[in-house]
Amino acid sequence: MESFTINPHLSKAEIFIEVENYLHELGFRISAKDMDRPWGGFFVLDETQILKFKNEFFSEVELSEEQLEQKLSPKFLLVAPGARLSWQYHFRRAELWKLIAGTSAISKSTTDEQGPVEVMNLGEVVSLEKGQRHRLIGANNWGIVAEIWMHSDPTHPSDENDIVRLQDDYSRK
């Protein structure tokens, strides 16, 4: 994994340009970009590049040939300093996260009560089970997190509507 450093003083637009350039330099095709999330935003990468994405960012994770043929929704989450995603869980997916640049934290719990905030370690995989409550939290710099979705039912894959928000700083449902 080729790392890059994030300047904490860059604007949101500048951070998105930096990450987009980084992804293009690595040969990834971006299929969608969302800069409009109040906590930051994300890039969705071309699903046909899942093996390349897995090898680049999740080389220590074993995925079967069957899993690699499923929709895994490779993404980069960009969380702003001090911002938080909703306290949430999913019915139809587990997730793998890895902090690849900057700083961020996470809170996890098996109940609706938010767990303790833990600093994410650069390069360490975080595995979130289906139904596990979780929240990505911006620290003192932008956090750049690679993500893979592990769908519980590949014939009915999860999507952005599979978010149950228990608490949200931005009053989203």
From TrEMBL:
<dbReference type="GO" id="GO:0005976">
    <property type="term" value="P:polysaccharide metabolic process"/>
</dbReference>
<keyword id="KW-0413">Isomerase</keyword>
<feature type="domain" description="Mannose-6-phosphate isomerase type II C-terminal">
    <location>
        <begin position="73"/>
        <end position="168"/>
    </location>
</feature>
<protein>
    <submittedName>
        <fullName>Phosphoheptose isomerase</fullName>
    </submittedName>
</protein>
<dbReference type="GO" id="GO:0016853">
    <property type="term" value="F:isomerase activity"/>
</dbReference>
<dbReference type="GO" id="GO:0016779">
    <property type="term" value="F:nucleotidyltransferase activity"/>
</dbReference>
<dbReference type="Pfam" id="PF01050">
    <property type="entry name" value="MannoseP_isomer"/>
</dbReference>
<dbReference type="InterPro" id="IPR011051">
    <property type="entry name" value="RmlC_Cupin_sf"/>
</dbReference>
<dbReference type="InterPro" id="IPR001538">
    <property type="entry name" value="Man6P_isomerase-2_C"/>
</dbReference>
